[in-house]
Amino acid sequence: MPILYDQSCFPRILVTFDSLISIVNDILLSLQRLEFLGDSVLDYLITWHLYNEYPGMSPGQLTDMRAASVNNDCYAWSAIKHGLHKHVLHASQELHKHIAVTLNNFDKLSSSSTFGYESEASPPKVGC
């Protein structure tokens, strides 16, 4: 026996689906805006720290140090150094594998003064 569909509900389903898409897009936009804000706060905090910690440095040197410090790889290596990677919630086997490889590389590099910041390998990007 064929399944009969009540076609009168299709417009409501489409409107609901369209609303869902709109909500998801709004959430993603909000997350991206929060990421932008978070990056700005980190940039400010690092700038403030460098400015106060190195009063004898020229503005050019401070700019170079900030540029070397304010990037996703440095954030990721710092997060690993302080164990923050343990708090990342995800359901991706691929990401889990990449984090494990990165942790292994970090353990090999952490004895150097850079703590892996100058590593050839890039840590996985987790975010929006």
Approximate helicity band: 55-70%
CA-atom Rg in angstroms:
23 Å
Which spans of ≥5 residues are poorly predicted at pLDDT below 50?
none
**Bulk shape:** flat
Could you explain the architecture of this structure?
The protein has 128 residues and is mostly helical. It has two domains: 10-69; 71-128, no CATH class. Helices cover 64% and strands 0% of the residues. It has four helices and no strands. It starts with 9 loop residues before the first helix and ends in a 19-residue tail after the last helix.
What is the gist of this entry?
With 128 residues, this protein is mainly alpha-helical. Helices cover 64% and strands 0% of the residues.
Task: List its traits.
128 residues, 4 helices, 64% helix, flat
Itemize the secondary structure elements and their pairings.
Blueprint: H1 10-53, H2 59-69, H3 72-81, H4 93-109
